Amino acid sequence: MITVREAAPADADVLATLNNAYNRLKRNPDQIRQSLTTKSRAETVLVAEEAGVVIGFTCFQLLQSVCYDAPWVELCDLYVTPAHRRRRVGLALVQEADRRAEKAGASEFLLRTNEKNREAQALYSQAGLASEAQVVFTRRYDRRGLTSA
Fold first, then answer.
1. Which CATH superfamily is domain 2-147 in?
2. Could you give the 3-state DSSP secondary structure of residue 64?
3. For residues 72 and 63, is the Cβ–Cβ distance under 8 A?
4. What is the pTM of this model?
5. For residue 50, what are the CA distances in angstroms to 8, 67, 115, 120?
6. Helix (H) or strand (E) holding 97
7. Ramachandran class of 69: left when φ > 0, alpha when ψ lies in -120 to 50, beta otherwise
8. Interval 80-134: pLDDT, tens
9. What does the DSSP 8-state code read for residue 69?
10. Cβ atoms of residues 112 and 136 within 8 Å
11. Domain spans of the chain?
């Protein structure tokens, strides 16, 4: 049985491993533990477990602007180990994030995914999210200075 819960500092080692598999960022367990220990009220990290083993995670942020009455939620990251995909793990994570967003009074639940990532799009549709056309502008920074994307 798959369970979803909020991540704790004790999850830092496995989250570092999963994060590296997800996006090749090598945040070490101490960095992740520190983030989870001093977590802001804006970000929530959820983990999915099966038989006590963490098999996936998602991060989402509650955002607020002075221009709007209600906050909104942006799902930032979602990763499930390859061996556990297509078993509703990602769906369970998205649904729990969505439930928490609604409970927090969010007006919207947003996320971005690559237009070529059909598997993710199918998952998000299955979770009841609707696709909307948007134009996204970006500028990426590296440690040496500005680089455009």
1. Gcn5-related N-acetyltransferase (GNAT) (3.40.630.30)
2. coil
3. yes
4. 0.87
5. 16, 42, 30, 21
6. helix 89-103
7. alpha
8. 999 999 999 999 999 999 999 999 999 999 999 888 999 999 999 999 999 988 8
9. S
10. yes
11. 2-147
